[in-house]
UniProtKB/TrEMBL annotation:
Residue ranges occupied by any GspD-like N0 domain in the UniProt entry: 54-124
GO biological process: protein secretion by the type II secretion system
Cellular component annotations (GO), alphabetically ordered: cell outer membrane; type II protein secretion system complex
Name used for this protein in its record: Type II secretion system protein GspD
A Pfam family assignment: Secretin
Region (Disordered): 643-662
Type II/III secretion system secretin-like domain segment(s): 438-604
Taxonomic source organism: Candidatus Lambdaproteobacteria bacterium RIFOXYD2_FULL_56_26
Location in the cell: Cell outer membrane
Length: 662
C-alpha cells in the first residue's frame, strides 16, 4: 500500500492509505515525485551535521513511513498504538535504503514490537502477539527474507534436547524452541536474524563426535570481554592441546556476548578460569596497565585499599587485581592516575615495625592448713643413723610394714602412749602412740607460663599452653533402652592473646586478653572415672598504654579454695566424743593471686631484631645447662606506688621452689 500524509510537507504527520488503482495517471506522477522527495528528505535527515546526527525523538509511525518509502515496502500497523512511541537513531554516515530496512528490526525490538512479512506486506505487531502468528516455515539454510519465521533444524550428532537446554539462554524472550524427539530436530520460531544466527551456532556445534564423545556443553556469558576475541583466544589455547581431556570446541555468539563450550570437565574448568581473568581485565577500558611487585606489604590487603579510590568524586576508571602467588598488583586506570597510585603503593609497601613482648604469668599461693586428731600406731622409740625416730609395725589403716619418722624432718606436735617419753622434733612427748599435729604452711609461687612473643604492629599474637579435657555434655536413652552419650572437649590451661599498636611517640597500646583455667583439685580428666568436670577459670581483658621497654603488672584475680579431709578408723571413729581419738581431720584454705607481667619492646630494624634473638638464645642455652632463673624482683619490678616504694613479691627469708636468687 502507499501512504499520503495528512499534512503534506511534514514528516511528523500521520498517513492515510489510498488506493493507487483509483487515481488518474497525473495523480500517480505527483505521488511518485512526492515519494522521491520523501526519500531525499530521509537521506538529508540521516546526513545532517556531517553525517553524525539523524533522527531525534520522532514518533514511530513517521519513522516507519520513512523506511517504507526508502525500501519500497508496504506496512500495516495500528497508528493509534504506535504514535506515542518516540525513536532516536544516530548513525555515523548516511544509511542506504537496504540498511534502513535492516535497521527496522532493532527499532521495533526496543519498542517491544516485531515485524512479520508475508505476501509482500510487512505487519507490525506486539512481540507477544507473534507467538500465535504462523510465519513461513524454513526447512534448511538459505537466504531468509521474512522478519518472523519458523525454522526446522535437523541435528545429526548431538541430542536435540541437550542443545535446547544449553542454548535457550541465547534466544530472545519471545522465541519459541521445541524438540522433536523422533527426528532429533529443533523447531524454532523467532525473527529472521535470530533464527539464522541460532541455526549457524547449531551447525558449528553439530559435528562428528570424534574426540568429544560423551562431552558436556556449557554456555558462558561475558560481561566485559568480547565474545569474538575470547573465541579466538580460547581456540588458539586449546587447538594444540594433545591431552584429550583438555580439548575444547568454542563457538561465540556476538548478539548475547556469550561463548558456547563443548568439552570435558578439565578443559571446561580451564576455559572458565581463563574467561574469568579476561572478563575482569577488560573492565578497565582506559587501556593503561601497570604491574607493581610488592616487597613487604600483602598484595590482597593493598588492593582493597586502592579499590576505595573507585568511589571517589568523580569516580575513577580504576581496577586492581591482586596476584597472590607473586604478591603483585595489576592496576588498570587512566594514565593521569598512576602517579598518585604509585605514591600510595610505595607508602604502603614498607617494612612494618614489630613488637617483642616478654610475659610472665604466675600464681602466688597462700596455704594455711590445720591437722587435728589422733592417730594410733604400734611401735617403739629407737635410734636410726644417730637420730631419734619412732618405728611402727603398721599403723591403723596402713598396709603393714615398718615406717620411720625422723624427728628432725617433722614439725608440729606428736604424743605417744607406748613406753617412756619420746623426744621428737626437738620436743618431749608422752609415750602413747598418738599424734596431734598443727602444721602451718605459708607462701609459694607457681610460674604458669613465661612466653616471649614477637608480632607485627597491629597484628594479634596468641599463645596457648594446656590440654583438652573431655567432658560429658548429654546422655540420651532411646525407647529400646540404648544409651547415647555426647562428649564435648574443654581447653584447660593458660591462654594469652595480645594485639600491639605503636603510637607516634613510640608508646605501645596493648589489647590484652588472658585466661587461666585448671581442674579443681582432686578431679580427673578420665571419663571412665568421672563424667562432670569442674574447672576454675580466671580471665583478664583490658587495654593499656605502655612506654617502650616498660614493665607493667596486671593482677588481683584472687580465688579461695577450702578443702576438708577426714581420715578415721572404721567403726571406732564414728563413736560420739570418743571417736576423736580414732580419726584425723584436715582443713585447708588456699588463696591464689594471679599476676601477669608484660614488657613490650619496639623492634624497627634488623639490628634490633638480631639483638632480641641473641637474648632469647642465651636464655635457652641457660635453661639447657640448668641455670634457668626467673628473678621476679629484678626482671619484673612492680611499678612504684607513691608512698610505698617498690614491692618485693618474694617472701622474706625464703627462696620459692623453682627460683634462684642472684
Amino acid at each position: 500500500m502507499l501512504y499520503r500524509p495528512k499534512n503534506e510537507g511534514s514528516l511528523q504527520g500521520s498517513f492515510q492509505p489510498i488506493d493507487p488503482f483509483s487515481q488518474a495517471a497525473g495523480l500517480m506522477s505527483r505521488l511518485l515525485l512526492l515519494t522521491l522527495g520523501l526519500f531525499w528528505a530521509g537521506q538529508v535527515c540521516f546526513a545532517q551535521a556531517g553525517g553524525s546526527t539523524n533522527l531525534r525523538q520522532m514518533d514511530l509511525p513517521s519513522v516507519i513511513e520513512l523506511i517504507a518509502k526508502a525500501a519500497h515496502k508496504r506496512f500495516i500497523y495500528d497508528e493509534d498504538k504506535l504514535k506515542a512511541k518516540k525513536v532516536t537513531v544516530l548513525a555515523s554516515n548516511s544509511p542506504s535504503p537496504q540498511e534502513l530496512y535492516k535497521m527496522l528490526d532493532s527499532i521495533l525490538e526496543v519498542n517491544d514490537l516485531s515485524a512479520v512479512e508475508e505476501g509482500g506486506v510487512v505487519r507490525i505487531l506486539p512481540s507477544g502477539g507473534i507467538k500465535g502468528d504462523n510465519g513461513p516455515v524454513v526447512l534448511g539454510p538459505g537466504s531468509l527474507t521474512q522478519h518472523y519465521v519458523t525454522r526446522l533444524i535437523v541435528v545429526k550428532y548431538i541430542e536435540a534436547k541437550t542443545l535446547r537446554n544449553s542454548l535457550s539462554p541465547l534466544l530472545g524472550k519471545d522465541a519459541i524452541l521445541v524438540v522433536e524427539d523422533g527426528a532429533n530436530a529443533l523447531i524454532l520460531k523467532d525473527n529472521r536474524e535470530s533464527a539464522e544466527r541460532f541455526a549457524a551456532i547449531v551447525a558449528a556445534l553439530d559435528r562428528p563426535e570424534g574426540d568429544f564423545a560423551n562431552s558436556s556443553l556449557e554456555v558462558v556469558a561475558l560481561e566485559n570481554a568480547s565474545a569474538k576475541d575470547a573465541e579466538v583466544m580460547l581456540n588458539k589455547v586449546f587447538e594444540q592441546n594433545a591431552n584429550r581431556g583438555k580439548r575444547l570446541r568454542v563457538v561465540g555468539d556476538t548478539r548475547t556476548n556469550s561463548l558456547i563450550l563443548i568439552g570435558y570437565p578439565d578443559g571446561l574448568e580451564q576455559a572458565r578460569f581463563l574467561l574469568k581473568r579476561m572478563d575482569q581485565q577488560n573492565k578497565a577500558q582506559a587501556g593503561n596497565m601497570r604491574v607493581y611487585s610488592l616487597k613487604n606489604a600483602n598484595a590482597d590487603k593493598v588492593s582493597k585499599v586502592l579499590e576505595r579510590f573507585r568511589s571517589g568524586n568523580p569516580p575513577t576508571q580504576l581496577q586492581v587485581i591482586a596476584d597472590i602467588p607473586s604478591n603483585s598488583l595489576v592496576v588498570f586506570s587512566d594514565a593521569g592516575d598512576f602517579d598518585a597510585i604509585e605514591n600510595v603503593v610505595n607508602q604502603l609497601d614498607i617494612i612494618r615495625a614489630q613488637v617483642f613482648i616478654q610475659a610472665l604469668i604466675m600464681e602466688i599461693k597462700l596455704d594455711r592448713s590445720l591437722d587435728l586428731g589422733v592417730e594410733w600406731q604400734a611401735g617403739k622409740a629407737t635410734t636410726i643413723s644417730g637420730q631419734d625416730a619412732f618405728v611402727t609395725a603398721g599403723g591403723v589403716g596402713s598396709t603393714g610394714g615398718a615406717r620411720t619418722f625422723p624427728a628432725t624432718t617433722t614439725g608440729g606436735a606428736a604424743v605417744g602412749v607406748l613406753g617412756g617419753p619420746i623426744t621428737f622434733g626437738g620436743q618431749t612427748f608422752s609415750s602413747f602412740n598418738a599424734f596431734i599435729k598443727a602444721t602451718q604452711t605459708d607462701s609459694s609461687i607457681d610460674i604458669l607460663s613465661n612466653p616471649q612473643l614477637l608480632t607485627l604492629n597491629n597484628e594479634e599474637a596468641e599463645i596457648k599452653v594446656g590440654e583438652v579435657v573431655p567432658t560429658l555434655s548429654a546422655t540420651k536413652v532411646d525407647p529400646q533402652g540404648n544409651q547415647t552419650t555426647s562428649i564435648d572437649y574443654k581447653e584447660v590451661g593458660v591462654m594469652l592473646r595480645i594485639s600491639p599498636q605503636i603510637n607516634s611517640d613510640n608508646s605501645i597500646e596493648l589489647k590484652i586478653d588472658q585466661t587461666s583455667s585448671n581442674l579443681v583439685q582432686g578431679q580427673t580428666n578420665n571419663l571412665n572415672q568421672q563424667g562432670a568436670i569442674t574447672t576454675l577459670n580466671r580471665a583478664l581483658k583490658t587495654k593499656v598504654v605502655v612506654n617502650d621497654g616498660q614493665t607493667i603488672v596486671l593482677g588481683g584475680l584472687i580465688s579461695d579454695e577450702m578443702t576438708d579431709v577426714e581420715a578415721k578408723t572404721p567403726c571406732l571413729g564414728d563413736i560420739p566424743i570418743l571417736g576423736w581419738f580414732f580419726k584425723t581431720r584436715t582443713s585447708t584454705v588456699r588463696k591464689t593471686n594471679l599476676l601477669v607481667f608484660l614488657t613490650p619492646k619496639v623492634v624497627r630494624s634488623e639490628e634490633e631484631l638480631a639483638q632480641v634473638s641473641r637474648s632469647a638464645k642465651l636464655k635457652l642455652r641457660s635453661a639447657r645447662e640448668g641455670h634457668f632463673r626467673v628473678d621476679v624482683t629484678n626482671e619484673y619490678k612492680v611499678p612504684v606506688i607513691p608512698g610505698e616504694g617498690a614491692r618485693d613479691l618474694t617472701p622474706k627469708g625464703e627462696t620459692p621452689a623453682g627460683l634462684k636468687r642472684d
